[in-house]
Amino acid sequence: MSSGPPQGLLLRRGDSGDDVADLRRRLAVLGYGAGDSQHFDTETEAALRSFQGDRGLVVDGICGRHTWNALVEAAHRLGDRLLYYRVPMMRGDDVADLQRKLGQLGFDPQWVDGVLGPQTNRAIRQFQRNLGLREDGMVGRSSTDALERLTSRTRSRVTIAEVREHERIRRQPTRVEGRRVVLGDTGDLPALTAAIARRLRRRGAEVLSFSSPDLGHQARTANDWNGDIYLGVMLATDNFAVSYFAMSGFESVGGKALAQRCSAALKPYVSVAPKAMRLPILRETRMPAVWCRFGPGELLVPLTPHLSQALAGAVSEWCLDPGLR
């Protein structure tokens, strides 16, 4: 199987070739569908949709870059390969499992996102130092065995990343004034983000608002600006939702509470339920983040004043009371 996504290619029903055969094999290994074929048929689409749904991705039955990367990441299990910090950074379910186990033991990888970055490298070395292991940042058999042994003895399933997010939110002032809010869109709803920004600025918030189809750039910009909250909006044709970051063993408590407020505020105008997802824009932002997918456009445009008021109100209410107990 090839290691990277098909360059510039979207695989969908009706396609055929080696890339489709690779896709089908990857799905079969993970328990979705079976059989070798070079044809993207209805069985392949159904298997892919099941994988996307279970993975917290947009369920469209199309294999693009994000879905392909998720397939690659899902194939890795902790202990199958040597994990260490490098550029480009290692990604996978094994990295996420490593981060969860480190976090359960009190070693802080900062986030559980399946990306082995500098903070995770620091947590690995702290773990090795505390256990008297060779402090080289390499997670091989000895480090993996120690992690498995110690986490099997602890009752806690809460990671330090979740505790830290909870405490960070709890310590923040319960007011809108001075809060740093990042607003993003992919270029199709700039009027909506601009209207939300105006309303929040009038309430005293510091707002960074911009349009970019590159969601990785949006996440990096939000992190570099050290925002308190990220709210993104996107015009979509289906899969409508107000999503927040969650994956097996971890969820953003602040993002979930904000998503619930946004969904409730939007209910009179558009039906978008809060949904746990692991979209890259959500897992790469280091703050409570919400990503709104709604449509159709002919409905949203005339509703822009109402939607901006609803979302600005939801953000303001969250700042006053983030709902953490």
Structural class: alpha/beta
What value does the average pLDDT take? 91
Oligomer: single chain
Rg estimate, integer Å: 21 Å
Number of strands: 7
Taking the alpha carbons of the first and last residues, their distance comes to: 47 Å
Envelope shape:
globular
What is the H/E string? HHHHHHHEHEHEEEHEHEH
Beta content? 5-15%
Helix content: 40-55%
Poorly predicted sequence stretches spanning 5 or more consecutive residues: none
Major sheet size, sense and barrel closure: 7 strands, mixed
Q: Your description of this structure?
A:
With 325 residues, the protein is α/β, with parallel strands linked by helices. It has 12 helices and 7 strands. The chain has helices at 18-29, 42-55, 65-74, 93-104, 118-131, 141-151, 160-171, 190-202, 215-224, 253-266, 280-284, 297-320; strands spanning 180-185, 206-211, 229-235, 241-247, 250-251, 274-277, 289-294. Strands 1, 2, 3, 4, 5, 6 and 7 form a 7-stranded mixed beta sheet that branches. Helix 8 links the parallel strand 1 and strand 2 (206-211). Helix 4 crosses helix 6, helix 8 runs parallel beside helix 12 and helix 10 packs across helix 12 (297-320). It is globular.
